[in-house]
Amino acid sequence: MFYSEPVSRLVLADLNPAQHRASTYGEGPLLVIAGAGTGKTKTLAARVAYLIDRGVPPERILLLTFSRRAAQEMLTRAGQLVGRGQASKVWGGTFHAVANRLLRVHGHAVGLPPNFTVLDQSDAADLMNLLRTELGLAETSRRFPKKDTLAAIYSRTVNTNVKLSQVLEVAFPWCADDIEGMRGIFQGYVKRKREQAVLDYDDLLLFWKALLHAPTISDLIAGSFDHVLVDEYQDTNALQADVLVAMRRSIGNITVVGDDAQAIYSFRAATVRNILAFPQQFPGAEIVKLEQNYRSIAPVLAVANAVMSEAHQQYDKELRSRRTGEQRPRLVTCLDETQQAQVVCDRVIQHLEQGIALNRQAVLFRTGHHSDLLEVELTRRNIPFVKYGGLKFIEAAHVKDMLAFLRILENPADDLAWFRVLQLLDGMGPRHAQTVLDQLRGQQGLGEDRPNSPLERFLVERVDAPPAAAEQLDELRHALRDARALGPGQRVERLRHFYDPIFERVYDNAGVRVRDLEQLEQLAGTYATTREFLTDLTLDPPSSTSDLAGSPLLEEDYLILSTIHSAKGCEWDVVHVIHAADGNIPSDMATGNAEEIDEERRLFYVALTRAKDWLHVYFPLRYYHRRRGRSDAHSYAQLTRFISPRVKGLFDLEAVYDEQHSPESTASVSAPVTVDALLNELWAD
DNA sequence: AATATCCGTATTTTT
DNA sequence: TACGGATATT
User: Fold this and answer.
1) A430 pLDDT more than 70
2) I need a labelling partner for A539 at 20 to 30 A (CA). Which of A13, A84, A206, A322 fits?
3) Does the pLDDT value for residue A250 go beyond 90?
4) Residue A573's CB: how many other CB atoms inside 10 A?
5) Calculated CA dihedral for residues A147, A153, A155, A159, nearest 10 degrees
6) pLDDT band of A237, cuts 50, 70, 90
7) How confident is the model at residue A347, as a pLDDT?
8) Rounded distance between C-alpha atoms, residue A467 and residue A99, angstroms
9) Distance A507 CA to C3 C1' (A)
10) Which residues surround strand B, with CB < 7 Å?
């Protein structure tokens, strides 16, 4: 095979034999099993560079990653090897983003208009709820599954390609009796989406797959790529695997990279079967294993390996560290959450003074709100931080309001957006909003000279509404009419003229939230079209506050706070894992069966393996129930079951019961509590 | 009588 | 933040 020697040597100089073999593999299917910290990103980036170097046109390479950030990082690294201009031509992004890109162009072949809007998770749930109410399932005396559950069931059914009855039996047994009602809702849900030209996340994949089964388009799309590379393959689902198989029907060049020990997205219907069955699905696949860990020092890796060795399902690899270092991970037992927050802050500062910048340190936790108290303490001490995961910017009600205006303008058939906007008006509840919508949708007037689009109708026709809303209705009319003629940035500005007064009345802390609207306006200004702005925001929402703030914050040093899920693929010199108590890790929402618990174990493993040099695991003994201020009701926690006595032996143990760290406790209260805590520790093992 | 709004309580992870 | 139930408003 021809390729230019000098560049290749540069590309490969820094790779170990396994990494080298993976990145220079020729034609055909390739499976790379890459353990945590084994240089997966480097290898994949090198492979992209190698392919380009070997003469594959970059625009004929498709790189599917878990987030856009991941794609960017890989392409930046590839760019360092073969030049930025070349690497930037590679098709990179998530399955969903790539599907969107393809469907905007080729969607007509499967009956989609180019101006479809994309529903995010909560939009989808809202639509479910609408149907749930309409079909009278909300009022039945027996409790019918809630909107989020309905959305989850629907999504799992679609993504696993398994019959609803079976999905219910396996994953939602407590809902099995409601299958009839669900069928009705799901049918209506699909119908509504088609009528309104809206797609949910799952539709993006489904229609991509449909494109690949449409006669001529199929060859066009599959044929426009010479190589397909997929990162984090352990977290893809059956539908995504179907898409890949269809993409590579005739050209077998596919590379997938993943680690079955890091599969943490089964709640999204991801299945490790994809990785395990890859050699069967793509016969003749070469398999390369990366097992040399370059990230963590040996004592850190020892803990991680020990945690995994106790898993139900065994993994046939054990990572070997290439880095020496003596300090063992620390297991820090704290009195309660308050003290935990203080100790974490203390440690962070200690490391900072020792020369490790804040952004080389991260605090990881199972769920978004686990960092609440810590955030308060960090703020109090003026330690800057950025939080990833948890509640996102885009989920905030006021942001959704503003996006709903934009969606109406982009796709007037989008009833969900209308529904939301109309209810912002005084005296307009669900009922009136529905009435107005019915008028706007009306009879699709054949031969009448009524305009067809609900937006046109709204702009020129009078609608029945409660008197209190009449004036605002007029203002809305004007706002939409004006905004229609403007670009994204000015559009938001004009709509804010209408929305800001309502917003200030509806939300009590409007002062803080107005910043978000300003940022939204600024961000919109950077886009050429509202369509791009909207889809980018739903398919790749800003994952942290800093993503939005832009450059000013980037210069500064700040601590990273992240859910473990969002920490996937990242690494830090110092990692603090907080709330290592049973019920938090594993979450008691996920201890139903052995498989769920195994996934929680892998999650803990992912958290531990993010650390390079220092690993601190914190365990607060005492948990308060509900009201923190008044009531003293609390209970004692157990250390996470994943730190067994054997694993515990690999930690340096520390107990922090220092009274000065616990301001709210007086000596008389805390002394017996401390004794109890110590006693409780004795039963813990 | 119908519907909007208010209030207290409970919250997993994300494309 | 979202739900259910109680209360307020038209």
Assistant:
1) yes
2) A84
3) no
4) 16
5) 180
6) very high
7) 96
8) 45
9) 18
10) A 66-67, 94-97, 120-121, 201, 264-265, 267-268, 366-369, 389-390, 423, 426-433, 466, 539-541, 543, 563, 565-566, 587, 589-590, 626
Structure tokens at A97: 């983003």
**Residues of chain A (412-431) having a beta carbon less than 7 angstroms from strand C:** 427
Report, as an integer, the average pLDDT of A355-383. 92
CA distances from A615 to A61, A139, A407 (A): 38, 51, 46
Mean of pLDDT over chain A: 87
**Phi, psi dihedrals of residue A247, rounded to the nearest 5°:** -70, -30
Q: Closest nucleotide to A435's CA, by C1' atom?
A: B3
Are A366 and A564 spatial neighbours (Cβ–Cβ below 8 Å)? yes
Q: Which nucleotides of C are covered by protein (CB under 7 A)?
A: 1-4, 10
For residue A232, the model assigns a pLDDT of 95
Q: Does position A678 have pLDDT exceeding 50, yes or no?
A: yes
A626 CA → B11 C1’, Å:
12
Helix/strand/coil for A388 = strand
Q: State how far the Cα of A581 lies from the Cα of A147, in Å rounded to an integer.
A: 30
State the Cα–Cα distance between residues A407 and A118, nearest whole angstrom: 9
Asked whether the beta carbons of A13 and A2 are under 8 A apart, the reply is no
Residue nearest to nucleotide B12 (CA to C1'): A367
Nucleotide lying nearest to A565, CA to C1' measure = B13
Contact A622, A335 (CB under 8 A): yes
Q: What is the pLDDT of residues A4-43, one digit of tens each?
A: 454 565 566 689 999 999 999 999 999 999 999 999 999 9
Q: Which bases of chain B are contacted by protein, using any atom under 7 A from a CB?
A: 2-5, 10-15
pLDDT grade, residue A681 (50/70/90)? low
Cβ atoms of A231 and A64 within 8 Å: the answer is yes
More confident residue, A611 or A427: A611
Residue A679 has a pLDDT of: 56
Take residue A451 and report the two structure tokens written for it: 């305009």
Instruction: Put residue A83 in one of left, alpha, beta given phi > 0 → left and psi -120 to 50 → alpha.
Output: left
- CB A184 within 7 Å, strand C: no
- Nucleotide nearest A599, from its CA to each C1': B13
Q: Which residues contact A443 (CB under 8 A, 6 or more apart)?
A: none
Q: For A304-326, give the DSSP string.
A: HHHHHHT-SS--S---EEEE---
Residue A140 has pLDDT above 70, yes or no: no
What mean pLDDT do residues A478-484 have? 95
Calculate the angstrom distance between C1' of B6 and CA of A526.
40
Q: What angle, 0 to 180 degrees and rounded to 10, lies between the N-to-C axes of helices A179-195 and A147-160?
A: 80
Torsion of CA A187, A192, A198, A202, to 10 degrees: -10
Q: What local confidence, expressed as pLDDT, does residue A545 receive? A: 58
pLDDT at residue number A8: 60
pLDDT band at A2 (very low <50, low <70, confident <90, very high): very low
A121 touches strand C (CB under 7 A): no
Nucleotide nearest to A125 (CA to C1'): C2
* pTM score: 0.89
Q: How many Å from the CA of A453 to C1' of C5?
A: 39
Number of Cβ within 10 Å of residue A487's Cβ equals: 15
- Residue A324, Cβ neighbours under 10 Å: how many? 8
Q: What percent of chain A has pLDDT over 70?
A: 88
Distance separating alpha carbons of residues A174 and A165, to the nearest angstrom: 12
| pLDDT reported for residue A81 | 87
Q: Is the pLDDT reported for residue A509 higher than 90? A: no
Q: Within 7 Å: CB of A146 and strand C?
A: yes
